[in-house]
Design a protein that fits this description.
heterotrimer; A mainly alpha; B alpha/beta; C alpha/beta; A: abc type-2 transporter like fold; 14 helices; 4 strands; B: alpha/beta; Rossmann fold; Alpha-Beta Plaits; six-stranded mixed beta sheet
Amino acid sequence: MTRPMRFLVRVGAMASKEVMHIRRDPRTLYMALAMPVVMLLIFGFGVSFDMDRIPLVVLDGDRSVASRALVRAVSAGHEFVIAADSDEATALRMIRRGQALAALAIPADYQRDLAAGRDGEVQLIVDGADGVVANQILAKIDGLVRAESLRRIDLAAEPPLQVKVFTLFNPEARSALFMVPGLAVYLLAIAAVLLTALTVSGEWERGSMEQLFASPVGRLEIVLGKLLPYLGLGMLQLLLVVAVGAVIFDVPIRGSVALLFFVGFLFLAGMLGQGLFISVVARSQLVATQAGALSSLLPSLLLSGMLVPIENMPRILQALSSVIPARYFVHAMRGIMLKGSGLSILWTDLVALTIFALAILALATTRFRRKLA
Amino acid sequence: MSTAPAATPGGTTMGIEAGAALEAQALVRCFGATRALDGLSFTVGRGQLFGLVGADGAGKTTAIRALAGLITLDAGRALVLGRDPAKGGVAVRESLGLMPQQASLYPDLSVAENLRFFARLYCLPRALFRERSARLLDITRLGPFLDRRADALSGGMYKKLALACALLHRPEVLLLDEPTNGVDPVSRRELWALLHELVHDGMTVLLSTPYMDEAERCHCVGLIHHGRLLLAGEPRALLATFEDETYEVEGGEREQVDQGLASLAEVHAASPAGATLRIAVARGSAGTVAGALAPLAASLRPVAPNFEDLFLARVRQEAA
Amino acid sequence: MSELSIEAVHLSRRFGSFLAVDDVSFSAARGEIFGYLGANGAGKSTTIRMLCGLLAPTAGEARVAGFDVKTAPESVKASIGYMSQKFSLYLDLPVRDNLDFFGGAYGLSGPDFAARADEVLRLCDLEHERDAITGSLPGGIRQRLALGCAILHRPAVLFLDEPTAGVDPVSRRHFWRLIRRLAREGTTIFVTTHYLDEAEYCGRIGLMVDGRLVALDTPAALKRRYVPGRVLSVRGRNLASAAASLRSRPGIIAVEPFGAGLHLQVAAENWNADSVAQALASAGAQAVEVESGEPTLEDVFLAVVARPREVRHD
């Protein structure tokens, strides 16, 4: 048998053994396939930044045709419901108790001011305890009130200027569209790192590493044999996550599906390599699990641009995020799924992911010392 | 597969003169403050069955791992077929079979799957694998348990499977770390018969054991203590160096006999052996001891010394 | 000494279609060391688990320390000590803390217990190791500590399941001295082992084959009954091929390679040392020396348990 043949046979032996481990241990399959889907559903449905049916208290001091029109305009959509039509004291009490999130106060001379051509001023009182919520309410009310004022202008005469807003790529501003690609990255990262982190440290703990080291199998053969099955599993996981995103959350794939999976492949190789590196160094499943979770969870959650736009980060974190593969994958996923971007735009992401994968796998192989002690 | 330096032909007897299969040259390895190997040296000739015996923590496992190239050495050199196992690469490892002391197989894989995995690691062609595994399964009587998971095997069966996995590629040199722990006497005897057969066919076997009766089954025995070799040689020849005389004490009340013996400086060791008591006394002092035991209605019966007597005596001398 | 600590009557245990223990009856007197031998998987551990009240028998009954294992398993558990091959000590704790922990498991505490723990340390020769971290101690000492933990509550019956596997001879002798002392003081010992030189320490031995108790007697009586032949040990050169020709001759019961030599078991009426030496020499062996030896319990075990099997020499 030639040397390359032997290499392939041994990689194949390691890989098929790994497949048997996976099939024997349902926890691995759960971690790889079920957990990301369950998490995606929980996050997708539970952690939505889209707010609707926001309880609003109306303080209508004017009680005029114009004020009623404004209230109708605000409550016409599904975004706000009128929790009460009352006075200021009640409104504050309700906000304090969480029965309402905002109050809209219309002054007594609202209609008169409008009729006189003066600006009609309304006041919005918002529960600012949750900044994200408060910002959304402000934006929504602002939009509705603006629309109402445009309508009023329209009623009187042809408006001099009309603003038509088009939100590109995500016209309904649904956070699912924004979140699912990011979430997919985050879930893939955790699962991939944990999968391989457990497998090499498992060899140490079982004592089988001693037998492996005494056999002709090389370090690269062990690393590749461990990598390939999980790469396959990871691709399956990616497919599942993208499918759930498309079917349940209506997340489109506007770009090339092939490109999406190719980027996914590069990202997974890097993440699996990171897990290998951890378990080569850690030698214990417990340590490897903790290090694996920590090293994949936090960076891909906080530094990938999934939650916080990278442009908004302090400079030092921006620099840090440039070595986090999740950053490039999030960018590429959103690009491909939402914008339909192609290679001409995403090639930098591909290069970055390739460099990371090769570097971490080389590091894992060289740090893999063929010694028990 | 053999690319080792040419061996001197005709090493038929205890062949140290033949090209050594295994050499430990002043091995030193410390773990923290303990010197697990403290200048350990010995040589195993080709085709020899060498037994490394010693107490727990004497350094047997570390020595075997050093010879397999699995640990870094602080000093000294280990050689397998004339080459450094740590640097020799694939060629050395293909000529080596190792059966570690602790569990080293895959618990979730079946007997057949474990065998197939190791066969593939050694790139064994399918036909050869089928032929060899059939033979090994026959010898180890694991045939009926092919589909049983390794973690459901009894201790003895597990050991036999580990041995079968280490033998699939017909290594020139076989390293066995306490292969008979927890193995029942029938399996143990079969395992020994298999080892003798392998050695007869030309394999070199180094095994470690805490059991002295097993040491006597080897061609050559090395007694290791605190990481050093206390003595080495053919078991019978070593036994001939035993200075004490051994006796069994017959009769008498055990408590009284124990107390009577404890007060005698001539008695170097006393241990129960079944219903009787086995003692080692200084050469020529049997009369004195017999005289002391006579009032207790106990008498001495001479018995041949065994390796355990020798081992205990040498460890005692070392401690003194 | 006549009072019975263990009584098993027609004890059986079935797992599905597999009969692990098949109609086993025996008894052990107070202070007796009872050895229980058998191949891996012969049913030894299942028997122990039933006698310890951990596993209900499917048929038959057993009384341990006066309690029925079926109806009063908790009383059985409280009056026995159990030490397995894989004794579970806390390796990160000092020796004395392990005793405290296992004492606590039996509900022992207070000044009486402290005195007992010190007594056990003395008894097991662990006084010097009392503050040592358990994990740093060699196997032989850990094994004595495991024994100490098992006898803290002064059990009437002590079950030892392969207690000396992998322990060196010095430690094993030490261990057996402790066991004998406990037996002398009235503790009944029920022990399984694969090391038949140890089994010589037992008062009586039961031999298990495939779930059945096929022999039960003192070591000496077992040897007389099952090893009627002569045991010879042979040295010389070119023995292997000569032995192969000897093997087919009548009266040769067993031929086994032993180091550079052979161990033979032969029928006393056909063979003696001289005739064996002659036969080997004429088959091509040189410098043959034959010595007669004593039969061992291993010979007994093999005679009872072993399935005959040819050793190939070609």
